[in-house]
Amino acid sequence: MKKVEISFADGLFDSEEIAGFVRKHKSYLEGVLSREKIYQDSLGWLDVAEWASDDALKKIEDRAREVRQDADVFVLIGVGGSNQAARAVISALPRENAPEILYAGNNLSADYLNKLLQALAGKSVYINAIAKNFETLEPGLSFRVLRQYLEQRYGGGAAARIAVTGTKGSSLQQLALDHGYTFFTFPENIGGRYSALCDVGLFPMAVAGIDIGKLVRGAQEMRARLLKEPAEENIAFRYAAYRNLLQLKDYRLEMLSFFEPRFYYFSKWWIQLFAESEGKDGKGVYPVAGNFSEDLHSIGQFVQEGRKMIFETFLDLSGQDSSLIIAGDDKHDYFDYLDGKDLWEINKLAFQATFDAHRKGGIPCLKLTLPELDEYYFGQLFYLFMVACYLSGKMLEVNPFDQGGVERYKENMFKSLGK
């Protein structure tokens, strides 16, 4: 099996600097992978099979198949970690004969929700509301509006079109029991941004026709790899170590850069993972995304020649999975030098030209290479980055699983609304 690999541009650090950092922190790797007690209540994702067993996958797939057979549209209601992972995979791997996937509960825009309701007219609609504690305003409000919409359209048949995902014993589960909605579990020992590999992420993916068994297998095999590799070779540990070393050198922003638009929503998941996990106690690297080549024509100038506070992690695909040969013709449009070239190769050349230019311009550059982009490698990426984020947080000496700052705006908003 071809592997996900990581490489680092030469000259970032001297060998003793790296070796010293590894010696100081290598014990973290064993602690993280052995489910240390200090974060026991947040590590339900660490053993993939805990919430993604064969029985759990069968329950998800059986219900998803029923929805797929009848739904024209499936609305995923959630915000942040409740929808980022699913959206990343669904947008990157669209499947034929699957319902259209729309999203709600991730903003408070009346215009957005009105237009979404208009888009449902005349279509067979199913919804899935995801909320761990069912107190967050955005998904709660959208669920009420969409639930009422289904009740007006389908009457007593609305309940069969509603699935909810929440913690056991929550008010959301009680709603499901009272009204006959399908209930999926949002594990209490998994935070939203770590929830790709449980009901939260897997049910909407399955409705969209994603092979969730393959995705889970990728995550399991990445776990097996991380358990075997020593710190000096471990892909998650090396990534966490390099980004922390760069922070010590006063690099304050990490840009996840890619030339394949299919990574766009994955970058949104990655941004939340690291921002929410490390942005506390006055610490952390600010995560941003570079959607190239488009963004090269906007922020590219700053990255190349601006203040040296950014380092880049490039996502690269080594295996070609698409082709478009640029045909010549009799019209002289001044792009004849492209005749006969494959757009895939042109994009790869643009990738390498950018990587080289940024590296030579003084930008520390890392490269994470995937053999291909499918469910298996998405599972690998999710698990790799979650472990790396956990390790990075420990190196930074912050709790990678809490997010007290997020609650501040909620307190002010609820007070203004009279809750």
Give a structural overview:
The chain is an alpha/beta fold and 419 residues long. The chain is built from 15 helices and 10 strands. It has 2 domains: 212 residues, Glucose-6-phosphate isomerase like protein, domain 1 (Rossmann fold, 3-Layer(aba) Sandwich); 163 residues, 3-Layer(aba) Sandwich (Rossmann fold). The strands form 2 sheets. Strands 1-10-9-7-8 form a 5-stranded mixed β-sheet, sandwiched between helices. Helix 4 links the parallel strand 2 and strand 3. Helix 9 crosses helix 14 and helix 11 runs parallel beside helix 14. The radius of gyration is 23 Å and the shape is globular.
Write the SSE topology.
Elements: E1 5-8, H1 15-25, H2 27-33, H3 54-70, E2 73-77, H4 84-92, E3 100-104, H5 110-119, E4 125-130, H6 137-154, E5 162-166, H7 171-179, E6 182-185, H8 199-207, H9 212-228, H10 235-248, E7 253-258, H11 264-278, E8 286-291, H12 300-305, E9 310-317, H13 343-360, E10 365-370, H14 375-396, H15 406-417
Parallel strand pairs: 2-3, 2-4, 4-5, 5-6, 7-8, 7-9, 9-10
Antiparallel strand pairs: 1-10
Helix pairs in contact: 1-10, 2-14, 3-8, 4-8, 4-11, 9-14, 10-14, 11-14
